[in-house]
Amino acid sequence: MTKRYFLIAMTAVLVAACCKAPQVSEEEAASPVDTMLLKNFCPKVVDNVPVTYVKRAKFDIIDMHSHDYVANAEEIAQWCKNMDEVGVLNTAIMHCSWIGRPFEEVVELYAPYKDRFRFWCCFDYSDMSPEGIEEACALLERYHNELGAVGVGELGDKGEGDTYARPVEGKDIHIDDPRIKPLIAKAGELKMPISIHIAEPYWMYLPMDNMNDGLLNAVNWHVDTTNCYGYDKLMETFENAVRENPGTIFIACHYLNMNHDLPRLGAMLDKYPNMYIDISARVAESAHTPRTTRDFLIKYQDRVLFGTDNGMDTEMYRNIFRVLETNDEHFYMPESAYHWSLSGFGLPDEVLKKIYHDNAERILTQYK
Ligand SMILES: [Zn+2]
User: Fold this and answer.
1) How far, in Å, from the CA of 96 to the mean position of ligand 1?
2) Dist. CA 292 → ligand 1 center (Å)
3) Ligand 1 centroid to 295 CA: how many Å?
4) Model pTM?
């Protein structure tokens, strides 16, 4: 379109928009709907529907996604008490990410409670030369053999590479980077699954406008892809890595950030037996489509892992149990930033047991 025709077309659109503007009466203009901000919408449910408080999970839990949230040993003791109260046997402490202390210190701090926690370490990208990667492989082996690391993670790529990594960020190092193939192979050889956070929920990539269904949360986590990989490119890197390394297990955190398109996620799980997902930190992104998500979790019950990724508060765990275990409808959760309400999945016992415990146990002990 030439500039002139573009201007004519835009003028026509604006005129049409002005002509169509609804006539607002004085009475209507005074309505709260005209002045209230969506971010202040805080509805109280009035429906007389079942409200279930799940104090303790129906089956013992292995939490496959958490971090070093504590300040000291006392807080670890409190965390263990909370875990006892809600039914969590064991929690994964993912070392990579922006919080926490050096890996050796994590292991030392949690040592008195080592039966209750499992440690996951990072890839070391300090030296990306072939010799450096060889050293990083040796370090991974040492972490596994001497410090008890059971897996690698949480790797995190939101477009700029594995920026969760420590001691150095893996800037521009994506999971299908040929340079790190020896590290991925070493993880497979050591039977250490790789837990990886790829991209963000889809709404975070859409325009921040009145058609963005996830706007209230998306606006806080909006991803600017101007100078980095976008959603589909990141998914491609992940799929390349999973396909090219069949001897290594990959756990895609947070439903691979694909809650909006579970058929696409299911197709990937169908294709790659070495791929798993964890359900951590995606309560609100899954429980607004409870029937579709329920069907998905039942169909892929052997490939789904429980995770929290959200501190150690007992109510945090219980909110997740409510979604997984009950048929409660139309409720809100305090930590959910979205405007929509949630409903429970009412998962069958045998599925719950696998997601809570059995799948994780199988992955972590299958070759031991
Ligand atoms: Zn995490």
Assistant:
1) 8
2) 25
3) 25
4) 0.90
Is the pLDDT at 30 greater than 80, yes or no? no
Domain with residue 226: its CATH number is: 3.20.20.140
| Span from the CA of 37 to the centroid of ligand 1 (angstroms) | 31
Residue 25 lies in a domain: no
**One-letter-per-residue 3-state SS of the chain:** CCHHHHHHHHHHHHHHHHHHCCCCCHHHHCCHHHHCCHHHCCCCCCCCCCCCCCCCCCCCEEEEEEECCCCCHHHHHHHHHHHHHHCEEEEEEECCCCCCCCHHHHHHHHHHHCCCEEEEECCCCCCCCHHHHHHHHHHHHHHHHHHCEEEEEEEEECCCEECCCCCCCEECCCCCCHHHHHHHHHHHHCCCCEEEEECCCHHHHCCCCCCCCCHHHHHHHCCCCCCCCCHHHHHHHHHHHHHHCCCCCEEEHHHHHCHHHHHHHHHHHHHCCCEEEECCCCHHHHCCCHHHHHHHHHHCCCCEECCCCCCCCHHHHHHHHHHHHCCCCCECCCCCCCCCCECCCCCCHHHHHHHHHHHHHHHHHCCC
66 C-alpha vs ligand 1 centroid, how far in Å?
6
The pLDDT of residue 9 is above 50: no
How many angstroms separate the alpha carbon of residue 39 from the centre of ligand 1?
26
For the cut 60, the answer to whether the pLDDT of residue 152 exceeds it is yes
Residue 334: pLDDT band (50, 70, 90) is confident
In this predicted structure, the answer to whether residue 106 has a pLDDT above a threshold of 80 is: yes
- In a domain? residue 287: yes
Q: What's the domain range around 92?
A: 50-365
Question: Does residue 9 sit within a domain?
Answer: no
Domain count, the chain: 1
pLDDT at 4 over 60: no
Q: What is the pLDDT of residue 100?
A: 63
Mean pLDDT of 116-130: 96
pLDDT digits (tens, 9 = 90+) for 278-292: 999 999 999 999 999
Q: Is residue 240 part of a domain?
A: yes
